[in-house]
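During the reporting period the student researcher (J.K.) took over the structure-prediction task from the postdoctoral fellow and processed the backlog of single-chain submissions. One of the processed entries is reproduced below for the supervisory committee.
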Amino acid sequence: MNFLEVLLNFPTEEQVRKFCKPGRWRETCSYLATGGHRLWECVKFAGSKYENKQIFRGPSTSGNDNCPGILGFLADNQDRLKGRTVEYGGSQNVFEAIEMDDDTLHIFWSGGENGVSYGLKDLYIAVDRWKVVFGIKGLGDIGSTIVFLSW
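J.K. obtained the following structure tokens:
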């Protein structure tokens, strides 16, 4: 699969087996859900999408956090986003980088001098064929950052 296919189908079957571990008792990730148009979905940064999903815990209620979710995939593949258009606060810029520390995501654009930060606890990420939206759970588009995926 290419980058866009993996992004749109996150988590892939391989990622589910490797990281999410359905049915593996206490090893099962607490963010693995089933429902919607795909068998498995990651709801770690899903925001309101979470309300329509059934969390797959199998026999586990351990609350495992097995990986950095789609944010980790985006951070590991941020070179695929470099040079893309970023929209924030009504202005458009050029994506430069994603950085994370223990509890914050930083998105930089236009030379790395400008950007925005989001607390990971309240972060939601929405992906479709045309864009990746980073925002704050419950606020909708207010304060969101959009990275356009023009393929």
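The committee noted the following: The chain is about 15% helix and 35% strand.
J.K. will present the remaining backlog at the next meeting.
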